[in-house]
Design goal:
single chain; 205 residues; alpha/beta
């Protein structure tokens, strides 16, 4: 069964990887470990955006760059599709008294969910896959999944990062559902140094 996998990178990170030792994740190995042998993984599309440096963590962009380079070098099925971060000034109310507003810098990731939905739909219409696996818990993707399931009659899987309860809006259109456990993450790590390259796992990773 020709299988495409669509990974919401930030949903995966915040749902399953943040504050763990498993961020040096081999996506190819993870999905091979999670799917049955009849799934032929043709493509893994990883949707993310370049993070920005922060005063308390200036090395964050460099660590992300090492990881993306490692994925490209080690996972031949991978395609990385980048959205953008936008930081803007905003005024937000305080929860505690006095009930005044304060100015804050608000950073939002733009594009990944839309890009994922567009690729999921376009690849279905182009008959690029028999099965699509969505790695996310973002209910905004439900309509794209519905169209793929009902209009193109494709087989759909859902993989939920971490122990969160899966979105019912998504499971409604999934033929099967899996949770990405820490045990699976531990079994699916990239080599500390990617063979044939000078890309290595950062010490702070």
């Amino acid at each position: 069964m020709r299988t495409h996998i669509y990974v919401d990178g930030f949903n995966l990170y915040y749902g399953a990887l943040r504050c763990t030792r498993y961020k040096w994740l081999d996506l190819s190995a993870l999905f091979r470990n999670m799917l049955k042998p009849h799934h032929q993984i043709v493509a893994i599309k990883y949707f993310t955006a370049r993070v920005e440096s922060r005063e308390n963590d200036p090395g964050k962009p460099q660590r992300q760059d090492f990881y993306l380079r490692a994925l490209r070098a080690h996972c031949q099925e991978i395609e990385i599709i980048e959205g953008k971060f936008r930081t803007r000034k905003s005024r937000l109310p305080l929860v505690e008294p006095p009930h005044s507003k304060v100015r804050v810098l608000r950073t939002e990731e733009k594009g990944s969910d839309v890009n994922l939905a567009v690729h999921l739909l376009n690849d279905a219409w182009q008959d690029e896959y028999d099965c699509a696996v969505v790695v996310s818990n973002d209910s905004d993707l439900a309509e794209a999944m519905r169209l793929v399931r009902e209009q193109r009659e494709k087989f759909l899987g859902l993989m939920t990062p971490g122990n969160r309860h899966p979105s019912q809006d998504l499971t409604e259109y999934a033929n099967f559902h899996r949770k990405i456990s820490r045990n699976l993450l531990a079994r699916s790590q990239l080599p500390n140094t990617i063979p044939g390259t000078n890309t290595s796992k950062p010490e702070e990773w």
